[in-house]
Amino acid sequence: MLLKGKAGIVTGAGRGIGRAIAVGLAAEGAHVLVNYHRSEREAEEVVSHIRNAGGTAHRFRADVSKKPEVEAMVAFTFNVFGKIDFLVNNAGLRIESLVEDMSEEDWHLIMDTNVKSTFLCSQAVIKTMKEQKGGRIVNMTSGRGVVGMVKGAHYAASKAAIMGFTKSLSLELAPYGINVNAIAPGPVDTDQWRTGKSREEIEKIRTEQRKMSTLLLKGVLDPVDTVGTVLFLLTEGSRAMTGQTVFIRSP
Questions:
Q1: Is 36 a catalytic residue?
Q2: What are the φ/ψ torsions at residue 250 (nearest 5 degrees)?
Q3: Mean pLDDT across the chain, nearest whole number?
Q4: 171 in the same domain as 235
Q5: N or C: which terminus of the chain has fewer CB atoms within 10 Å of its end residue's CB?
Q6: Among 155, 158, 166, 245, which one carries the catalytic annotation?
Q7: Model pTM?
Q8: Dihedral sign, CA of 162, 168, 173, 175?
Q9: How far apart are CA 40 and CA 235, in angstroms?
Q10: How far, CA to CA in Å, does 11 sit from each of 39, 70, 99, 200, 250?
Q11: How confident is the model over 153-190, as pLDDT tens digits?
């Protein structure tokens, strides 16, 4: 098992990409803290799935845009596992809106959920990882941070900010043996991606992507398509990589 005995946190792990990552890491021997905010039932299902497969997992409710809740989550993780080897900053939100119609509240909500949470969670694990003389932080971003997005300027801006944060934090933590990288998948078939699309539109996309060439170029990814890259960034094969954004499909 690639991560046998390793322990850490996956934020936003009740559904979608976070769920796939939590289950995938546990299958490789990792002890996983399943973070959730509102998806309690789904988070409990993730934990049960992992435990039924012989893995180790706990769930913890925390709004990761709130510092006291983040600090409580990190303290709980250390108490139950005795260490924190990795952090996967996956929690995120997307709201569609043209800039001229965008509310200030939605702008702040996107920035808090996507960027502030990445900052707060990373900040909270640094001391422990320094004391352990190593650790891995993986931040979930998006190709939209490079190419932009109609009806999603706040989302694209937040993902670009995560790329810059990743590079900067990697420079600060490299002397302590802590790797910091990011993953930028293309569109992923999650509840957020399906919002606003009809059944016919989704089925048309799915039919097209059954052709491998279409999937590689422009198909919609399955959440499990992100797991292998996360595993790579959490294992020794990527020990010389830090400050990088790995694109799963070109942006």
A1: no
A2: -65, 145
A3: 91
A4: yes
A5: N
A6: 155
A7: 0.89
A8: positive
A9: 30
A10: 12, 10, 28, 32, 25
A11: 999 999 999 999 999 999 999 999 999 999 998 776 55
